[in-house]
Amino acid sequence: MAFPLEALPDAVLARAQTWARLGIAWHTRPIKPNHGKPIIVSEFESASWLAVITIWSTGEAELETVRLADERVINKHHDLTSTDDLEALLDELVALLINDRIPEAAVVAHL
What we know:
alpha+beta; 6-stranded antiparallel beta sheet; 3 helices
């Protein structure tokens, strides 16, 4: 099954008001062929956080974040099968940024 990579820019854009309220600048890069396994990346940056969402055409996805105040890293692997899974990934990112809620099964470390 191929995950629809073109869903990421629209899903991120749909939350533009949330990113603005949080003072987050964001950018989604174009889909890249990536050696036969296409990939798309969205990057998020504020005075408090850095975050990157990477999704491969296989549905594999990584949410990578760094809280700048203490260099706490919170990363989580996802296996997306639908756009609902993508929405859940974005919900986890928003909950982390707003409420410091660490996603279940995330890896937490310090730089």
